[in-house]
Records
---
Amino acid sequence: MSIQINIDVMMARRKMSAGELAERVGITPANLSILKNNRARAVRFSTLEALCQALACQPGDLLEFIDDDD
Amino acid sequence: MWNQDKSVLLSVVCTRVVMVLALALAVALPFLCSSGFFEHRALISPESIPLLMPVYYSFCVPAFIALIALDKLLGAVRRGAVFTPGNVRFLRIISWCCFAAALILLASSFVSVVFFVLAVLAAFFGVILRAVKNLFAAATQLKEENDFTI
C-alpha cells in the first residue's frame, strides 16, 4: 500500500516547470524533487494547499492511493 | 567571544592532546618502569611494576580506537553534521571501547585495586555512552522524518 504523488502529471497539464512550481509553492527545488520522486515521508497541509493553488487542482488530483496487494 | 565552534575546537584539541600524551606514555613506559619511577608513586607493589606495561599496552588498543572515533565524531560536529547515522556508529564504537577497556582493567585488577576502580568507571562511561548513542539514534530518525516532511 502506498500513496503516489502525481505532481508530474499536473505539471505537464499546466505546462509548468519544476523551478516555477517550486517558486510559486515556496519550497526549494530539492524539496520539490523529493515530493516528485515519492521520497517524502509526509506533506504539510500548507504545502498541499500551495500546490493545489499553484496547479489549480484538488488534493485528489495530486495524491493517489495504490494498493500493492492488488 | 566564546561560541559553539570554539567549544568544539577545544574538544578536538583536548582529544588530540590526550592522544599525544597516551602515545608518549606508551613510548616512555619501558624506561619509566625500568628507572624505578613508579616505585614510590604507583599504588602497586614493586614486583608488579613490570605488569604495568602489558596492562597499559592492551588498554591502549580500545583507548586509541575510542579516541580516533571521538576525533572523527567531533570533526563531523564541526562540519555541522550532528544527527547522522555515522555519528551514531562512532558513539557505538566508543561505548564498546569503554566496555573493552573495562574488561581489560577488570582482568588486571589483581595487579592493583586501582585498576578495579578504573574498570568500574570505564563500564559506567560505557553505559552512559550507550544511552547517549540510543538518544542520537532516535534524534537521527526524528531529523530524517523532519527532513522528508515537505
---
Amino acid sequence: MNELKAKPIYLDYQATTPTDPRVVDAMLPYFTEKFGNPHSRNHSYGWEAEDAVEVARDQVAKIIGASSKEIIFTSGATESNNLALKGVMKFYGKKKPHLITVVTEHKCVLDSARHLEQEGYKVTYLGVKENGLIDLDQLKAAITDETAIVSVMGVNNEIGVIQPIKAIGEICRERGVFFHTDCAQAVGKIPLDVDDMKIDLMSISAHKLYGPKGVGALYVRRRPRVRVIAQITGGGQERGMRSGTLPTPLLVGFGKACEIAQNEMAEENARLTELRDYTLKRFRDRLDDVFLNGDEEQRVSGNLNISFAYVEGESLQMGIKNIAVSSGSACTSASLEPSYVLRALGVDEELAHTSLRIGIGRFTTKEELDEAIDAISTEVERLREMSPLWEMAQEGIDIKSIEWAEH
Amino acid sequence: MAYSEKLIDHYENPRNVGSMDKNETSVGTGLVGAPACGDVMKLQIKVTPEGIIEDAKFKTFGCGSAIASSSLITEWVKGKSLDEAGSIKNSQIAAELALPPVKIHCSILAEDAIKAAISDYKTKNGQGEVEAAE
C-alpha cells in the first residue's frame, strides 16, 4: 500500500476540486508583498488588502446575482450552514421556533438542526422521492405559522440531484418563511440568481469550485432584511455577523474562482454532460445490473452515483487503487452504516453497499474516463465471479426470498 | 484504510474461489451474513469418509477484509478434521490478517461460515449433533 506509483486518476470532484492555476496566480501576491490586514484603516497595506477583498466580494456576489453587501465571508460551507440555521433560529426562534429541512442534506445542516432540537426548537425533516427530489406538496404542508426557515440544498453532494430551488423559493416567499439553500455543490455548476429564485440565505464553498480550501460565504438578503445572530463574535467584522480577520489571499482566490466559473459555466457544462453520459452508457453497455442513483435529468453534469449490484463498494475500491472515487458503502465509513442519502431514496440496503460516486470536473479527460471505465468494469466482473449473490442471481434465485441472519 | 500485505494478497489473489455441488452428500455448505449488512459468505467443504476436509471453496460478497478472511479460512481447513476445523477461532484469522478493529466482524463471519458448513455436512450425513452455527 505504501509504494508510490503514478498518481491515481482523480474522479472525486464532489469531495474537492484542485485549485485552478489561474486562481493560485491571483492569490500569490497576497501572501507576500500585499500581505496587509484588510481591516487596517491607517495605511496603504490595509487599503490594498481591503480593495482586493471588495473585488472578491463583488465576484462572489455576481455569480449568484446578489449585491456585494449581502456577502458574508466565512471559513466554508459548514460554517455558513451553521450560521444560517443557528443564526436565524436564535434571532427569530422565540416567535417562530420551527425549522424545516430534508433528510438528504449535508451532515453539517442535519447536525446544526439536531443541536437546535436539543435546545428546544422544532425541526421537520422532509423525506425525498425515489429520484432524490423533495415533494413540494409535502413542503407546503409542513410550513406552519411557527416556521422561521426552510433549508433545502441546491445540489446533493452524493447523488448530484438538483432540487427545484425556484419553486421552493416561491413557496417560502408566499408563506413569509425564509429560504436557506446550501449551494456548496451548486455554485459554478448551475446558473443561480438569488432574486429570481427568491433565496434569502445561501451557503457557498470555494474549494468545490476550483478555489482554495478554508473559505466560503453566506449570502444574507438585505431586502427584505434577514437577521442572524453571530456564531463567532469579536471585532465585529462582516457587519457584525462574523468576526475575525479576513484571509485576503483565500478571498482573492475565491473571487477569481467564481469569476472563472461564471465565464466558463455554459461551455464546461456541455463538455461534462457529454462525458458523464458517455461514461454511463459505456458502463451499461458492458455490464448488467448497473443502476444510477438519483434523478437522471435533474442532475449536475459532474456527478454519477452508480450501484454495481452484487459487488460491495469497498472491495471494488480496493481493486481500483489507481482511481480516486468515493463509495456509499458502509465499509468505507467508521459507522459501518451505508449512505443515509441512498437509504433515504429507498435504495435497497444491499444496493447502497454497492455504490460508487464518480465525480468529474474541469481537468477530467476522456482518456482518463476510458481508463477508469475499463478498470472498474474489469474489477466488477472479477468480484462478481467471487460473489455468492451474483451466483444466486444467475441461478434465478431471488436474494430477497432468503432469510438472512442480520448481524 | 491501511491493510496488511497478507490481507491484500488474499484480496488480490484469493485462494479457492468457486462452488461445489451442494446436493452432494460429501459436501457441506455454510451461507452466512446478509446482503443488507454488506457481507455474505458462502463456504463449502468436501469431506472424505474418514472425516477429513479434502477441499474447500468460497464465494464472498463483502469488503476486502471479508474476502481475505474467507480465502484464508479455506486454506486453513484443508486437510483438517471436522473437529479441528470447527475449533478455528475468529481471533486467529484477525491476527493473521492484522484486521483493523472495525473489520473484526469479517473474521467472525468466517468462523460462522465454517461452523455452518460443518453443521450442514453433519446433518446431511446423519451425524445429528448440530452445533453452534447460524
